[in-house]
Amino acid sequence: MHGLVINKTSIAPKFKTRPVLEISEISINESTVELINWIAKFYFCGKVMAAKLFLPSRIWDHKVKLPKTIWYKLKDEIRKKDFEELKKELTRSKKQYLLMELLEIKDRKEDYVLSKDFSKQIIKSLIEKEFIEQYEESHLNTIEEVKMTHNESKLRTRKSNFTTQQKKVFEDIQKSKKLLHLLHGVTGSGKTEVYLHLIHEQLEKGNQSLILLPEISLTPQTEEYFKSVFGKDIISIMHSGQTQKERTDSWLNVYMGKTKILIGARSALFAPFQNLGIIILDESHDSSFKQDTAPRYNAKRVAAEIAKLKNIKVIYGSATPNIETYFSAMKSNSQIELNHIDEKIAKDSRRDVYLVDMKEEWKKKNFSIFSELLISKIREKLSKNEQIILFVNRRGSASAIICKDCGFKEACDTCGIPLTYHRSSAASFDHNSPTLQCHHCGIAKPMTSMCPKCQGHNFKLTGLGTEKVEEEIQKHFTKAKIIRADSDTTAKEGGIKQIYETFKNHEADILIGTQMIAKGWDIQDVTLVGIVLAEIGLNIPDFRSSEKIFQLLTQVAGRTARGDKHGEVVIQTYNPDNKMILSAARDDYHEFYAQEVSERQKFDFPPFSKIIKLTVIDKDLKPCIKKAQNLTKQLQQIVSKPPTQPTKKTKIYLAPDYIPYHANAHHYNVFIQSSNPDKALDGLTPETLREIKIDRI
């Protein structure tokens, strides 16, 4: 049994205790304990569950020991003698002489640092002469080695190339007394370069820095960008695509202080920093920063709490900030400072956007998933040896498969939602055969040729996905090199890095992808982006669905016109008059923001309220509904009685989960919507709270 000490007491517990057999050499600091307590309370989870966010399983299970570092220093008796006389003995060996001088000045040096300039034979010779000694120790690195890894003149040159707005934003953030900053910069405005110089400032102070990314797909480009300036020795990566050993090694490098810059997904937020100086969340609007499983934390909110505990700055960078953050930053008394960059680095670059009404394509008897304009533009770009990105917000070959004889639709046995048809995928049983896969729980099964209901053989594929787009575009352009980026093609280790390198090196002409390619990729030869169907996901029952699609469309459109080349975007839609789509086509965040805030205010949605979702789960439907109804009544009684009543606008309502049946159980949601929904929860018993899932949405 393993545990974590987070407090001490002189009062003996009433339960039986066990003896402590071993104390780990790895420890956590007081601010981490405070953060564990805050997460447990704010996100309604146990302290052990919160603590495990900070400790990889191999560390928690004591399967890893801290690596020891070999040090060299002058022997104590040597220091006491006449040092100049001793050095005369080494005049024939200039290297030995220099090493002795170095240790006289620096007191001690690490093996991996000395080995860069001195051979093992020189070190061994001085040990044999009993001038120096070797010893092992676990330690926290200093900034000393960091200064040896980056080029100061190169950084000064880059800084001198700042645009006026970049320079102003950088200086404003430096001078500001506020800890939280929303950096709203249009795509291609050079936000990453601002991040780089803010991090350099922290390196000079001896601090560590954290860059959080919403997608693993952004890691290769970001890693390359920072390593080109700071070198590879001080940078580590941490995300779910790594092996357990790789993640543990990165964790240890942060703990030991060898890592000065950590780049990772949301879980990297809990790495064991010794002297964290800044947190940067790139593409901070992205919903991937919110964890869907317990503890259901939001990395943006946790980062703000860390900023408060450690008195450090957090930068939320985005071309399309989420509505709540922007609304908060606009307030005069906000804790968040708003910083703007509204000009692109490549001032001569321009982007033309074409909105295609797919209903008109049908009238012209074009039943393809591609408009005539998009095919024409692809042909034009290929003739110029330029690159194309085709974006579709769904993977797979078809969203569902239906029997044409009886109408049967194949659904997941544990979730009840339609299975997605894959022509081939990582989930395929022989990695090459057609597969039906659940995109919620991941269960997959082979595609059969016979309907399980009527034994018919006539199937119809409905909808479209990345595989379908790939298949169709290959028919039009047989000689083009086409690659696909979705969770199927990137499932294997290093998959996304390989796809990124292939496309960046222009070894492919057309990249077809899902959300993972919509953010951050900066490839100069991409001059055309085709959005196959803009409204996919727009009708999901989520008050943020319009915002999410606007962000996606704006981000993916921003993958073109990154350099000096003229870029073009073709947006295909059946709703060309939709206000959100029109704002995205115009790349007008402020127009969309004004429309969306006005709409949310009508229904008192965030940012005008806060919502907590409670989920009741039961294997049988009727008891599930009954529990949800009882919970609703309980909450209504709580909020109707002063002084518990948080606000007159408190709303309590229930509805089936978006996927009502999954994981072999029925799910029903109860929503609390008010300015302070926590007060309603205060009236529930601990037993009730343990039986439900609680999520801040």
Key terms:
697 residues; seven-stranded parallel sheet; single chain; six-stranded parallel sheet; 20% strand; alpha/beta
How would you characterize this protein structure?
The structure is a single chain. By secondary structure, the protein is α/β, with parallel strands linked by helices. Helix content is 35%, strand content 20%. It is built from 25 helices and 25 strands. A 7-stranded parallel sheet has the order 6-7-5-8-9-4-10, sandwiched between helices. Helix 20 (545-557) links the parallel strand 20 (526-531) and strand 21.
List the helices and strands and how they pair.
Elements: H1 30-42, H2 47-51, H3 57-60, E1 69-74, H4 76-80, H5 83-88, H6 94-106, E2 108-110, H7 111-114, H8 120-128, E3 132-137, H9 152-160, H10 164-175, E4 180-185, H11 191-204, E5 208-212, H12 219-230, E6 235-238, H13 244-256, E7 261-264, E8 276-281, H14 299-310, E9 313-318, H15 323-330, E10 336-341, E11 351-357, H16 358-363, H17 372-383, E12 387-391, E13 400-403, E14 420-422, E15 435-437, E16 444-446, E17 459-462, H18 466-476, E18 482-485, H19 495-504, E19 510-513, E20 526-531, H20 545-557, E21 567-573, H21 579-585, H22 589-603, E22 610-618, H23 621-639, E23 651-662, E24 665-674, H24 678-681, H25 686-691, E25 693-696
Parallel strand pairs: 4-9, 4-10, 5-7, 5-8, 6-7, 8-9, 11-21, 12-19, 12-20, 18-19, 20-21
Antiparallel strand pairs: 1-2, 1-3, 13-17, 14-15, 15-16, 22-24, 22-25, 23-24
Helix pairs in contact: 1-14, 10-11, 20-21, 21-22
